[in-house]
Amino acid sequence: MTRWPALLLLLASHAAAAPLSFDLARLDGDGRLKLDQFQNQPVVLNFWASNCLPCIRELPILHAHAAKQQKLRFIGIAIDTRAAAQAFLRQHRASYPQALALPALLPTFGNQIKGLPYTVILTSQHRICTRRLGPVDAAWLAKTVAACT
């Protein structure tokens, strides 16, 4: 009887270690944005919404960091309507690819409560290295990127 909880924990940790993936509609152009496009590259995923004030406040930090990084890819993922997200991007230009997703994607990347903003740093094998619910700051981003890449 005591083996079942241990087996469930083993299966859960095994599932969490699997490489992650997505195939999402682009917001900043036509076509799709697939995580597989960035094979063998660490990736920062930033989940946001147009009505999220902390998302707006952290945007300059993410843009500045993305501009400095050569090997690290940044992807913005709007949890929003297409119209609202595109209107937002017209006002707040993005320097990295942007996609659109449903809230159901958030638990896949460890956000069970579906709060925003939410940032995930993936290893080059597209496994979660670290994640943060709430806005990022430059110090946290620099420290965690260094630890994960």
CATH architecture: 3-Layer(aba) Sandwich
Q: CATH class, please? A: Alpha Beta
Q: Overall mean pLDDT score?
A: 88
Q: Main beta sheet: strand number and arrangement?
A: 7 strands, mixed
Strand-residue proportion: 15-25%
- CATH topology descriptor: Glutaredoxin
Give a structural overview.
It is a single chain. The protein has helices at 3-16, 53-68, 82-91, 138-148; strands at 23-26, 32-34, 43-48, 73-79, 98-101, 118-122, 128-133. It has 149 residues and is an alpha/beta fold. It has a single domain (18-148), classed as 3-Layer(aba) Sandwich (Glutaredoxin), CATH 3.40.30.10. 26% of the residues are buried. It holds the Pfam family AhpC-TSA.
Brief summary of the model shown:
The protein is 34% helix and 23% strand. It is built from four helices and seven strands, in the order αβββαβαβββα.
